[in-house]
Amino acid sequence: MGFTGNTVKELEAIVGKAGVTLDSEELLCYSYDATGRSYLPQAVVFPSTEAQAADILKLAFANSIPVVPRGSGSGMTGGAVPVQGGIVLVTSQMNRILEIDRENFIARVQPGVIVGDLHRAVEEKGLFYPPDPASSSVCTIGGNVGECAGGPRAVKYGVTRDYILGLRAVLPSGEIIRTGVATAKGVAGYDLTRLIVGSEGTLALVTEITLRLLAKPEQVKTMAAFFDSVDQAARTVSGIMKQAIVPRCVEYLDEASIRLVRDSLSFEMPDSVKALLILELDGDSDTIEREAVQVRDFCEGHGSLDVILAENQAQADQLWQARKALSPILFKIAKNKINEDIVVPISRIPDLVRETRKIQEKSGLTLVSFGHAGDGNIHCNIMYDQRDKDQAERAEKAVDDLFEVTLNLGGTITGEHGVGITKMKFLPREISSIELNLMKGIKKVFDPENILNPGKIFIQ
Amino acid sequence: MGFTGNTVKELEAIVGKAGVTLDSEELLCYSYDATGRSYLPQAVVFPSTEAQAADILKLAFANSIPVVPRGSGSGMTGGAVPVQGGIVLVTSQMNRILEIDRENFIARVQPGVIVGDLHRAVEEKGLFYPPDPASSSVCTIGGNVGECAGGPRAVKYGVTRDYILGLRAVLPSGEIIRTGVATAKGVAGYDLTRLIVGSEGTLALVTEITLRLLAKPEQVKTMAAFFDSVDQAARTVSGIMKQAIVPRCVEYLDEASIRLVRDSLSFEMPDSVKALLILELDGDSDTIEREAVQVRDFCEGHGSLDVILAENQAQADQLWQARKALSPILFKIAKNKINEDIVVPISRIPDLVRETRKIQEKSGLTLVSFGHAGDGNIHCNIMYDQRDKDQAERAEKAVDDLFEVTLNLGGTITGEHGVGITKMKFLPREISSIELNLMKGIKKVFDPENILNPGKIFIQ
With an 8 Å Cβ cutoff, are A188 and B287 in contact? Predict the structure, then answer.
């Protein structure tokens, strides 16, 4: 039992010598994800077929070896980190787009496909896969399924879950399952598809994904609106939506964010700006030209200091730059950040902003908030220096306070990053033991030996 | 153990004398649903609060009495039929709309709310709840959650699942759970919400539903397009969607349907018509006026014999009349019908039509097909006389053949009606024993005593 020299031989028999890595530097590379937490695996394996993946799980099941599915390791909560060692199973060799069906608006893909590549491939055929997490140039669709990734376009188009029609997957026992349908509708039996979506790789190893696609919108229109009050900005967001205009993105930058990026931008902002909204409309050109004017007028009529309407792609890129420059520039403030993807009802965003200000004062740390205001999903970044024990403790307390505030406002501790290991201890604050026991019962049905991504989501 | 005289007393202690019915005529009324299959319960109970519902389940759990949740009994697969007797728990006294939150586009409702009432209530506030099954004037939102109801607007707006953010529910043990969120996004823990949606009342008794709402579309435009070939009609459907125009409804009537309703309609149809599409666009008035013309031109350019564009609500109602007159008029052909809500990929609709023609010839029965062509969800009605044993057998064989054909075309045996009792024996053709065992394992986690709606979905 457990991982032995013999395990290596058996793994090599399944995927070939080139498909198994034991090299200590390589093991280190696959020991962490975007959280920076690191746990060494005993081997990294790269199956290239579903049959190989199934054989790896059979071997692991028979020997009680943990198996941790991994896409690109860009996850934000430690989902791909092998906290109990064992095998990291990387999907990078299963990265083919198997089919794009224009007649039925469907694609079949393997889990290792990079989301950005999927976007390009379907858009070339006049189709559209809406979910677009910030990491789309590196993250895999398998990882997106595992975490139920969101991103800025969720306001209008929903999240990964809303585009997954069916799955092929390997159970921890090595048995292969098919869930869901390849049609627009389907309700036969319990919804295993959406149970696996967002289960953070703890229930089954996804080997093939059937995606629902849309027709590609004809045009996109980007604009930025500046406010001297967060309350105004938040009220404007729900005001726009009440007019039956649903922008595909409504991104928000708080005062601290604006201060950070201001100097690096190629457009002017009013001095008194305290909140910035970047809005993006899509649809046919006539409609969005008209809607853009409506949205601009609405913003201006609701206290906006100024509105910039991008006239072309270059100008649109400049506006987006404000948002995209943020993540790297954050490290100017402090060496480390904790990025929490909390969600509150849109109307409570101003309360959240007030409360984060209090947390900032109390902790003495800088908090920078930005994100998907259109669905209340704000990324709160707590900036600190990990090596400074006192700062680290204050940062941890700040996270605690932030979750408390979020739940009191009727929100959730995670909108799109999942629980992983970083939010494990907070999950019982949002979800009571009765529901957690149901989830643990489901985990046991799928994974009686607890070998698939063990030590995640729930404190056992 | 089991249902005794004492059970009646305890039920009366929970809901009061007026809340329990033992009267044999009443029991008969609650013994069947829209399938016409009838199984007598031992009591019908009408809780008016979640606490009462929980107490009923505690009592049933302690005494191993089956409990069958029931809304209006308009289900098409026997979901609300008490096949093992016991208690029918009717949600009609839990029918309050608790909250409509315009700021956050959310409603909280009890399960007994009639879907049509919900539509009206939210639309009065400028909001919109898209799912609209044909039975919306009588069916309950709780029933819609149980079956994951669809309806014609699913083409553009998706199904019930896509609008359920969170639930309160009572487990078979009587414990109360809360699932999901009251925000647009949320991924904390496994997706119990969507596991319960579509579980046909077998996992938990839903007591409160948090719904996602949209802004009400400014205007609706209805049109009808006539074709002398089903293939043309089907190709037109996917052609329209490729142009990035997504009608909110694309309803289809086959030749048999058209023949049935032709005389009762107040508009003219070309003689050679073999397929009718009723299309509905919604959005702001400028856009849909333009899109309507585009769709009309597209239909005319793709072999449509004629297109009627409704100029006002009265004309739109006339067009819809063709679709709405169908269900009652079907009984002109035969005393009984089996209505199967199969789904195939849109591009396979012409194949399905050819195959149903063969089934018609082989069975000697009349098949009438109509439904939601936009998502490939066709309602196939097999007309027969139940009292004629030979016809009943041929009808059963026709269902068998229809499901075989559907699965061979890459489809599913149920798009929106669920499995219930009528499709139970066919489910293993679509879903293999490995996945069925997972589902049965999940059922056991939620309902270890198998008291909640037993005898449904799975053959035990």
Answer: no
- E-strand stretches of A8-110: 20-21, 43-45, 67-70, 87-90, 97-101, 106-109
The CATH architecture one would assign to domain B97-215 is 2-Layer Sandwich (3.30)
Q: CB A241 to CB B215 under 8 A? A: yes
Output the CA angle B305-A283-A146, nearest 5 degrees.
110
Task: With beta carbons less than 8 A apart as the criterion, state whether B28 and B88 touch.
Answer: no
Q: Give SS3 for A69.
A: strand
Type of residue numbered A360? Q
- CATH classification code of A327-428: 3.30.70.2740
Q: Tokens 């913003």 identify what position?
A: A299
pLDDT for the residue B325: 82
Residue B393: pLDDT band (50, 70, 90) is very high
- Mark yes or no for CB contact A414/B218 under 8 Å: no
Closest chain B CA to residue A177 = B435
Q: Where are the domains of chain B?
A: 5-90, 97-215, 219-324, 327-428
Residues 99 through 128 of chain A touching chain B, CB cutoff 8 Å: 101-106, 126
Mutate to test the interface with B, among A77, A123, A183 (most CBs of B within 10 A): A183
Q: What is the pairing mode between strands B219-227 and B275-283?
A: antiparallel
Query: Could you tell me if B375 and A183 are in contact, meaning their C-beta atoms sit under 8 angstroms apart?
Result: yes
Surface of B (346-405) touching A: CB under 8 A: 346-347, 372, 374-377
| pTM of the predicted model as reported, rounded to 2 decimal places | 0.97
| Among B280, B303, B256, residue whose Cα is nearest residue B373 | B280
Our CA-based measurement puts residue A267 at a distance from the nearest CA of chain B, in whole angstroms, of 32
Would the CATH topology of A5-90 be identical to that of A219-324?
A: no
Q: What is the CA radius of gyration of chain A?
A: 23
CB contacts, 8 Å: B194 with chain A: 161, 191, 194-195
- Four-way CATH pick for B219-324: 3.30.420.10, 3.30.70.270, 3.30.70.2190, 3.40.50.620: 3.30.70.2190
Q: Which residues of chain A are within 8 Å of residue B410 when distances are taken between CB atoms?
A: 182-183
Cα–Cα–Cα angle for A17, A23, A24, nearest 5°?
160
pLDDT of residue B266: 85
ipTM value for the complex: 0.96
Average pLDDT, chain B: 95
CB-CB under 8 Å, B290 with A178 = no
pLDDT at B331: 87
Supply the CATH classification number for the domain A5-90. 3.30.43.10
Best mutation target among A145, A147, A160, A190 (most B Cβ atoms within 10 Å) is A190
Partner-chain contact A104 B435, CB within 8 Å: no
